[in-house]
Design a protein that fits this description.
- This protein has helices at residues 4-12, 62-69, 73-76, 79-83; strands at residues 17-22, 28-33, 36-41, 53-57.
- By secondary structure, it is an alpha+beta fold.
- The chain has one domain (4-83): 2-Layer Sandwich (Alpha-Beta Plaits).
- A two-stranded antiparallel sheet has the order 1-4.
Length: 99
């Protein structure tokens, strides 16, 4: 973790990062059942990996997304390979900020 700050600075200084949000381990799952909303402790949605954080970047295309995401410590720090860290890029269809 000591190796992360310089890489995070490069990532943030790209001018493309809109949001970088770490995720808590506390989870609530919502599901509609029998006409009512059911809230349970989670996580229950199946996944092979743990999602540690999520970030939103604004770029022109997928190639630029790859370039910006590759600046993140997940990819730059050598320990990331040992721990199996990775980044999944998912284009979003829309993004709306609340006024």
């Amino acid at each position: 973790m000591q190796e992360c700050p310089p890489h995070l600075e490069n990532f943030y200084n790209s001018g493309r990062v809109i949001v970088d949000a770490g995720l808590s381990s506390e989870t609530k799952c919502l599901q509609r059942a029998n006409g009512k909303v059911k809230v349970t402790d989670g996580p229950f949605i199946e996944t092979k990996e743990i999602i540690g954080s999520s970030f939103l970047i604004e770029v022109e295309d997928l190639d630029e997304a790859i370039r910006i995401a590759s600046m993140h410590p997940t990819i730059q720090v050598g320990a990331g390979e040992q721990f199996g860290w990775g980044i999944e890029i998912r284009p979003i269809h829309y993004f709306k900020l609340k006024d």
